[in-house]
Design brief:
The complex is a heterodimer of chains A (113) and B (111). In chain A, 0% of the residues lie in helices and 50% in strands. Chain A has strands spanning 5-7, 10-13, 19-24, 31-37, 44-50, 53-57, 65-68, 75-79, 88-95, 103-104, 108-112. In chain A, the strands form 2 sheets. In chain A, strands 2, 4, 5, 6, 9, 10 and 11 form a 7-stranded mixed beta sheet that branches. A 4-stranded antiparallel beta sheet of chain A has the order 1-3-8-7, with no helix packed on it. In chain A, a hairpin with a 2-residue loop joins strand 5 and strand 6 (53-57). Chain A is globular. In chain A, 34% of the residues are buried. The model of chain A has no long low-confidence stretch (mean pLDDT 94). Chain B is mainly β and 111 residues long. In chain B, the strands form 2 sheets. In chain B, strands 2, 4, 5, 9, 10 and 11 form a 6-stranded mixed beta sheet that branches. Chain B has a 5-stranded antiparallel beta sheet with strand order 1-3-8-7-6, with no helix packed on it. In chain B, strand 6 (53-57) and strand 7 (60-65) form a beta hairpin. The termini of chain B are far apart. The interface between A and B is medium-sized, with 24 and 23 residues.
């Protein structure tokens, strides 16, 4: 069964450093998302991406965040200057046109120290 | 504003039936989804209701009442592996639209 692949599975970074989280969505999917989940809390929407541009972003997705689809397969989330409160599990998700169920990747656990 | 309400915890016995309710208040509504998440795992899609009524997928069923802004997930013949968190999620718009998750219900199953 096709999978959404995320790397790395765990990233530890110092406060103020830049991190890039990587995702490879399922090949025929057209809609891409980043969500995050702080430990024990709900899954929160960050950004949606379609047709090589951001469709929508949440209040969490401020100027420190950016997304790219650099080569038609990878989908990246960059945090320019990490803060302690950015520590969370970050999930990439995708779906195809007409599909209502998102396929989530296994996530990247980001720990900012 | 947006809000999705579901119980924080539910406990049930193996082999029994359990219902997890969800009420929602969102700016738009295209459908209600349910996701399962085991500890340390990713959310996994279970079901989607766009229209009123019951959708059945094996041991799991999901119900929607748009007029009541209410839905539920019904799990039958509970197995220990069903112990997980269950999230309802509202799709507010068309294909490119995000889904908004509820706070999740932690289901614990006793032998």
């Amino acid at each position: 069964e096709p999978e959404v692949t995320q790397t790395p599975s765990h990233q530890v970074t110092q406060m103020g450093q830049e991190v890039i989280l990587r995702c490879v969505p399922i090949s025929n999917h057209l809609y891409f998302y980043w969500y995050r989940q702080i430990l024990g809390q709900k899954v929160e929407f960050l950004v949606s991406f379609y047709n090589n541009e951001i469709s929508e972003k949440s209040e969490i997705f401020d100027d420190q965040f950016s997304v790219e689809r650099p080569d038609g397969s990878n989908f990246t989330l960059k945090i320019r200057s990490t803060k302690l409160e950015d520590s969370a599990m970050y999930f990439c998700a995708s779906h195809t046109s007409g599909s209502y169920g998102y396929t989530f990747g296994s996530g990247t656990r980001l720990t900012v120290v | 504003g947006q809000s999705l309400e579901q119980p924080s915890e539910v406990t049930a016995v193996e082999g029994a039936i359990v219902q997890i309710n969800c009420t929602y208040q969102t700016s738009g509504f295209y459908g209600l989804s349910w996701y399962q998440q085991h500890d340390g795992g990713a959310p996994t899609f279970l079901s989607y209701n766009a229209l009123d009524g019951l959708e059945e997928t094996g041991r799991f069923s999901s119900f929607l009442s748009r007029s009541d802004s209410y839905g539920y997930l019904l799990l039958q013949e509970l197995q220990m592996k069903d112990s997980a968190s269950y999230f309802c999620a509202v799709r507010e718009g068309s294909s490119a639209s995000k889904i908004i998750f509820g706070s999740g219900t932690r289901l614990s199953i006793r032998p």
